[in-house]
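Entry under discussion copied across for reference:
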Amino acid sequence: MTQLTQGQRAQLPQFTSSLNLTIGIGIQGAGMTFDVSCFGVDQNDQLSDDRYFVFYNQKSSPEGALKLLGSQQGDLEQFQVDLSRLPSSIRKLVFAVTIDGNGVMSQIQGGHFRILEGGQEKARFNFAGQNFGQEKAVIVAEIYLKDVWRVLALGQGFAGGLSALLKNYGGQEADEPASPPPTPPAPTPPASQPAKPAVNLNKGVILEKKVQEKAPGLVSLVKTVNVILEKKQIADVVVKVVMVMDASGSMTSSYQNGTVQAVVDRVGVVAMRLDDDGALETWFYSDNHKQTPDVTLDSIHNYVKNNVKGAFLQIFKGLGVGNNEPPIMRTLVDRHKNSTQPVLVVFITDGGIYKTEEITRILKDCSHHPIFWQFIGVAGQNYGVLEKLDDLPGRVVDNADFFAVDDLRHISDDQLFERMLNELPAWLRAAKEKGILR
């Protein structure tokens, strides 16, 4: 039996050969009532078909791939899950527990998520109240498709209850039946109005106001980032953001058609929102690498045009035309390994990755440092080891993620930010659990 820890990912074929599984979820809390549910979501983490929300009031998906079995074998609820029967639109199953009534997740004695095949337990993830605060729900685990079916032991607290979870995944609770209007109360004499509380402008609102003044064309990006951060419950987290931009010869068209500037705009907004100094540390790399001035609200307009000067056959003079990732990665590790705050490195490449052993060694060696690597492929191919990051063993925590975008013009900003920030919350939790972050 495989014991999973919080934040751990694993391929299902590592411990089971079947796609027809039983999922058991248990949770204990004195005097508390719990609801267990499963969300079948699409590639954008949206419940685009509410028939794949399986819970006490809808116990099966249309074709029977997801079935709620009830309480048995020591589990509060069990699900029968046949991954082979799920439609191709369902890319992830999210298993959650919500509190119905009084109580918060910090008060639970404990809980578990387990995977069974033929009645035998194949994998298990345990969690406890000490992992949570005042949340009313917990996203326990995910089973998702990425080449093969995989599991993520998440254990992420969620502030709202079932309605908020539904909203988080794009669903909506059915309206309650209308009840007769209450009898109007007898009029009461007017009372003096209490003083209005002081307005608390959060980081997102403050940034919106600044952007409206200096770069109004980016306001919609700020609003979108704010929504994603709230959804992922990291709106108040401070993170240092670093961008590494591919300047190899094959990126020429991406520089010429505005794709690179569009990336700078979007990563810059993320940095201004997450980092207290409102600046995006910026590097360009090819055979060599070079740091350029930070992207700020004052410099973001035409940043690429103003800071990237080419030479014969070179996008960036002095950097060459090839791609050599390990040196810039080592530079960033040395620069940020002792950071007192988390560091998010957004690493843009168009592929041609071939230094597999060196990149693998760097990611393993720096997994105990406060650095998370978000690799993004843009209009490229041959991403090599980056496409296998979920399977990379020998790390203290999972400290890297990758996704590819064929054309930025064909993906919404909401989808881009969702994917860019998708694994950051899980890493933040895992890094804190391991003592990497305070």
Notes: The longest helix spans residues 259-274. Residues 112 and 126 are 4 Å apart (CA to CA). The chain has two domains: 2-168, 204-433.
